[in-house]
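Q: What would this chain look like folded?
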Amino acid sequence: MRYLISALAAVLFAAPVFAQGLTVNYFASPAGPVHLAGITIGETLEAKRDDYGAREFDRLIRTLASDLERELREVALLAEGENGASLNVVIEDAIPNRPTFAQQGATSSLSFQSFGRGGAHITAELRDAGGALVATYAYSWTTPRLEDALYNNVWTDTNRTFDRFSVRLASSLRDAVNTGS
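A: My prediction, written as structure tokens:
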């Protein structure tokens, strides 16, 4: 009986985490193709630069750019050069599963064996060629349980968040372009 109650409680309390999804607002009908205008670091994450180490930010930006380009290419909406609509993305926050190199160097009690729940929060704006706002996107995800992070690397859950965001954004954009909404 205790097991059943524990399992039910775990499902009920974890449900909001799994329910997180892409929030999309279209203000105009998007048209393809789209170029990735830039990925920047938001204020919340920027405040952690010294803690995480500057090189980690470059890694996060490269990973997200690669994911977005791959998914936009997959739905045939990636522009060559700077033609078409522009997508500006902000990594608002990111939480590593394991301490970064800088964190381990600054805190002797941390090691690579230390781990925790990771994830990220991302926002984006899609603007047409004239600069008018076409759509906004937001996505957040965090590992639901500490046990899920046991075998993860430093940025496993952040990378998972980037991948999910990229897939959902590209799919939403493809559907909006195809339906004209």
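The chain is about 45% helix and 25% strand.
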